Amino acid sequence: MSNQKDTFYSGLQQNLDQLREQGLYKPERVLASRQGSEVKSEDGRTLINMCANNYLGLSGQEWVAQASIDATEKYGYGLSSVRFICGTQTVHKQLEQAISKFLGTEDTILYAAAFDANGGVFEPLFDENDAIISDALNHASIIDGIRLCKAARFRYAHNDMADLEKQLQDAAGKRHKIIVTDGVFSMDGTIAQLDKIVELADKYSALVMIDECHASGFMGKTGRGTHEHHHVIGKIDIITGTLGKALGGAMGGFTSGRKEVIEMLRQKSRPYLFSNTLAPSIAGASLAVLERLSASTELRDRLHENTAYFRKEIERIGFTIKPGTHPVVPVMLFDAPVAQKFAARMYELGVLLSGFFYPVVPMGQARVRVQLSAAHTREQLDTVLKAFEQAGHELGLLKK
Length: 400
Ligand SMILES: *Cc1c(COP(=O)(O)O)cnc(C)c1O
Description:
Organism: Duganella radicis
Number of domains: 2
Radius of gyration: 22 Å
Number of helices: 15
Structural class: alpha/beta
CATH architecture of the largest domain: 3-Layer(aba) Sandwich
Strand content: 15-25%
Function: Catalyzes the cleavage of 2-amino-3-ketobutyrate to glycine and acetyl-CoA.
Shape: globular
Family: Belongs to the class-II pyridoxal-phosphate-dependent aminotransferase family. BioF subfamily.
Distance between the termini: 66 Å
Largest sheet: 7 strands, mixed
Keywords: Acyltransferase, Pyridoxal phosphate, Transferase
CATH superfamily of the largest domain: Type I PLP-dependent aspartate aminotransferase-like (Major domain)
Bound molecules: pyridoxal-5'-phosphate
InterPro entries: 2am3keto_CoA_ligase, Aminotransferase_I/II_large, AON_synthase_class-II, PyrdxlP-dep_Trfase, PyrdxlP-dep_Trfase_major, PyrdxlP-dep_Trfase_small
C-alpha cells in the first residue's frame, strides 16, 4: 500500500518537472520592501515596478497603512467569526454603504476576496431554469462560480457582440438570463463594450453583471468604473470587485447591486456564510481610500496622464502595443523566447515587468505587460522607456 503513496508524490514531482521543462512553471519574486512604484528585491536591487495592480499607487502609502492601524486599534485584529454570528462591526456596514454610494448601487456585501464574490454570486440567484451568458475570456473565478451553479451555460466569443446576440437568442427559452463580463480584461486592457451589452440586455430582457477588478477606482470620469466610462451607471444589475488592486491593495472583495440581490446573498452565498469576516484593518483602510477617491480625482487623473504618456512614447520608440486607453499596456514581442529574454534583460536594467506567452495568451501573441500607476513619476517612466529602447536594440527588435 505504501507503494501507492510513493507514486502519488513521485507523480507530482514528474508533473512539476514537466511544467519547468515547458516553461510554464511560475517562480515567485520575493520583495524585501513595501509595494510601490519602486521596490527592493530580495537580492538588494532597486527596481521600478511595472507589473503591480497598484493602479492608484495606494498599496505602500503611509496614510493607507495608518488608516488600517487606526482601525486595528479601534476594532481589534479580527473577529473570529463569520458575519452572521458575531462578525459584523460598524466599520463593515460603513464600508458596504460607502462602496454602494461610490458605485451608484443600493447595497453591497463584503467577501474575503473577489474570487469568493464571483464564486458565491451565481448559485444563490440562478437555477436550472435560468441561463448565464459569459464572455469566453472571463476571469477564472467567474468560470468557477458558474460551474457551481445549475443554470444553463452559454459562452460568447470574447468581446463579440454579434455572438452575444446569438447566444441570447439561443437562451430565449430560459426564465432569467444574465450576461456576465469582466469590465476590463487584464491581459489586453480591453474595455468591455458595456453600452452595447446594455442595449442587447434591454432588447432580450437580460440582466447584466460586470467584474470590476481592473476598473473600480479609476475607470470613468470620477473613477467609479467601466459603467461610468460607458455612461451606463444605474443599468448594471450586479457589480463584483476587489479591494486588493486599485482600492488599496490588501485583499477583500465585494458584490454590489439591488437590495434584494444582496439580501439573498447574505442568506445563501456560501463563501460569505462559511468563511471569516474581512479583517477590520482592511475595512477601515478601504473606507479611508473611498473617502479620498470620492473627494478628488487627482490620483485617477495622474494615472491616466501616465498611461497616455507611456502609450505615446513606447510607440514613438518603435514598439507595437495593443491600442487602447487602459493602464494595462501589452507591449507585443510575438515570440515566446524573445519575451522571456526581454523581461530578463529589463530586470537587469532595473525594471520589473512580466512576460506572457502561450498558453496564457494565444500562440504568436507573446508580450511583456506594463501596468501604469499614479505613483510612477515622469522620471521613472523615462528611465523605463530608456531601458525598453536599450533592450529593444540589443535584441534587434527596433529599427536603427
Ligand atoms: C484579480 C481578479 C479577481 C480576484 O480578485 P481577488 O480579490 O484577488 O480575489 C477576480 N476577477 C478579476 C477580473 C480579477 O482581475
